[in-house]
Sequence to fold (95 residues):
Amino acid sequence: MFPYLKIDFFTETIEQNICEGELFFTDETSIAELIEAIKNHFGLHTQIFRKFDNLWINTSFTTQWSLSQQNNTGQEISKIYSEGKQISVMTAILG
Fold:
């Protein structure tokens, strides 16, 4: 659904009372909302990364963006980079 996004779970910070269940979200759910929902529902701490060619960039500067916006930015930046065009680090991070 979001091939240019990756989620990492921090196992060293897993809380004792992890719950099973499902979590529903949409394309318009922000990164911040998703991270908070995972923490509240499952007791898991996460980070979400956006693809930049063969690297994964932390989305901590753009957590207010929707999942769709993050994914689309990752796709656009990866395409520009794969075409051999120059791109600044700040563009890669902030979109």
